[in-house]
TrEMBL record:
Matches recorded under InterPro entries: Cyt_B5-like_heme/steroid-bd, Cyt_B5-like_heme/steroid_sf, FA_desaturase_dom, Fatty_acid_desaturase
Keyword Membrane in annotation: yes
Native organism taxonomy: Bacteria, Bacillati, Actinomycetota, Actinomycetes, Micromonosporales
Keywords: Membrane, Transmembrane, Transmembrane helix
UniProt xrefs under PANTHER family: DELTA(5) FATTY ACID DESATURASE C-RELATED (PTHR19353:SF19), FATTY ACID DESATURASE 2 (PTHR19353)
Record-given protein name: Fatty acid desaturase
Ribosomal protein as UniProt keyword: no
Stretches that traverse the bilayer: 140-159, 165-187, 297-323
Domain Cytochrome b5 heme-binding: from-to ranges: 10-80
Length: 492
């Protein structure tokens, strides 16, 4: 196997080869040189190679108009929007079997002038200077550090016999939730990835609640979920739908064991897979932050087991995992295949990107105070602003700018709904969906050898996904395979 092979044999991921290209507004560019000097770091260019990144260009910058003068320098010939990777370079199990990016990526209005996004951005930029928002980001980080210290202190008190088990469980659930919320915002931030060894621990905190996966979150969450929310390219929904293939009675133990495997071994196996295949030659920067958090999770487990507190660790693992899983899926309407939330958008804005983001995202409330709810909800208290302005670097900045975003939206005819109550509104809905919905059918198997290959709209062959292995033993075999996939790092 040569060093430049980038297709992963374990997940079925197929990444582009040959000259790098990116598509923006129908034109092709080679951003290889620009990636080296990009102010936001080069991280974003690797996963998005071979894709149409128009939505990212227009929605992830405070002033995207300034980018136009750079684009012409890197324009190339030989590629069109029909040449984009059909499966986006992600594991095919995260997409519907017939998904084709050239055909299925949403075409919404996120223009730099005239769109709702442009109006919101103009109003926010006029009201808030960058330095003011950065000051809020620093305060957000200070609170994050304080919560992190409380998390570590509680572990020390508990294993030292100075704190009861019930207090340990409660504090672990709350601090893990809050720290993962901070990691969520850090995942969107700039990242100076020119150094070989680096520790942007804020990003890796996304993993602390056993649900997030920071190593692939840059792509799956930041680059695919946010710009393409609710579409076939939104892998966030598909990620959690995996448990629906189990019988309702098997979903709680199956998903718990699957995630336990990911926590203990699977995500580390996935990191090795990414380094060997999905990052050319394995020469990407060493993600020291990722390995530090992975080691810390094991340290917590070993400390509890060594002091006889293994049951308390399992209880906090279970409660943290399920609370945060339900919390994450509560921030959108994933229960319906065709959500009706878009019916409230004025007809003139039905195809507007920002209008869709606002109406398909839910702000969440628990105690009623937005600043406290920010931490209790893993950063999802101001979720609508976060989706409209994903480049803002903290929940504090989102809360501060919410009134401005709301005013512009209401002026455009979009009613700004009240935040959804997490415990009494959203939790019952998502529990019914994920724990009681009938078994979801497996996707059709890949075509047999010798069959005519599928092609994209541009005539590019669509690589077949990994063949669905027949599952012996019915649902018992399914739960064994699902659990084993967690330990193997398949499914993340």
């Amino acid at each position: 196997m040569t060093d430049d092979v980038r297709s992963s044999p374990h997940t079925g991921t197929v990444l582009p080869e040959g000259r790098p290209f990116w598509i923006v507004d129908g034109r092709a560019y080679d951003f290889t040189e620009w990636a080296r000097i990009h102010p936001g770091g080069a991280t974003w260019f690797g996963p998005s190679q071979g894709r149409d990144i128009s939505a990212l260009i227009h929605t992830y910058h405070r002033d995207p108009v300034r980018l136009r003068k750079f684009l012409s320098r890197y324009e190339i010939e030989g590629f069109t929007e029909r040449d984009v990777l059909p499966k986006l370079g992600v594991p095919p199990f995260l997409l519907e079997p017939d998904f084709d990016a050239a055909r299925d990526l949403p075409r919404l209005n996120y223009a730099d002038e005239g769109s709702l996004l442009a109006e919101i951005r103009t109003a926010v930029n006029a009201r808030f200077a960058k330095r003011d928002l950065k000051r809020l980001d620093r305060r957000f980080d200070l609170v994050t550090w304080a919560i992190g210290l409380a998390h570590v202190a509680m572990l020390g008190l508990f294993v030292g016999g100075l704190a009861p088990a019930w207090a340990f469980v409660i504090v672990m659930v709350l601090t893990r939730t809050a720290l993962a919320g901070a990691g969520h915002y850090h995942l969107h931030r700039r990242w100076n990835d020119k150094k070989r060894l680096q520790t942007p621990l804020g990003k890796a905190l996304f993993d602390i609640n056993y649900v997030g996966t920071s190593l692939i979150g840059t792509d799956g969450h930041v680059l695919l979920h946010h710009p393409y929310m609710g579409s076939g390219a939104d892998v966030k929904k598909t990620f959690f739908d995996g448990m629906l293939r189990l019988h309702p009675l098997l979903r709680v133990p199956g998903y718990t064991l699957h995630k336990l495997g990911i926590c203990l071994l699977g995500l580390s196996m996935r990191a090795r897979e990414i380094a060997r295949f999905e990052q050319r030659g394995g020469n990407a920067a060493i993600r020291a932050d990722f390995w530090i958090v992975r080691a810390w999770l094991l340290v917590e487990l070993v400390a509890c087991v060594a002091t006889g507190h293994w049951l308390a660790w399992l209880v906090q693992f279970f409660l943290t995992l399920w609370f945060n899983t339900f919390l994450v899926v509560s921030s959108h309407d994933f229960e319906d295949d065709a959500p009706d939330d878009l019916s409230v958008i004025p007809v003139a804005l039905r195809d507007d990107w920002a209008a869709n983001q606002i109406c398909l995202s839910y702000d969440l409330t628990i105690v009623g105070n937005r600043w406290i709810d920010l931490w209790l909800s893993a950063g999802l208290s101001p979720h609508r602003v976060h989706h409209v302005l994903p480049y803002q670097a903290s929940g504090f900045a989102n809360l501060k700018t919410e009134a401005t975003v709301r005013a512009v939206s209401e002026q455009a005819g979009i009613t700004w709904e009240r935040p959804r109550n997490l415990l009494f509104d959203r939790f019952p809905a998502v529990i019914r969906h994920y724990l009681f919905r009938p078994v979801k059918a497996l996707p059709p198997p890949s075509p047999p050898a010798g069959a005519t290959p599928l092609v994209s709209a541009g005539g590019v062959p669509i690589p077949p996904g990994p063949v669905e292995r027949p599952v012996r033993g019915g649902q018992l075999g399914m739960i064994v395979r699902y659990t084993a996939d967690g330990f193997r790092g398949v499914g993340v």
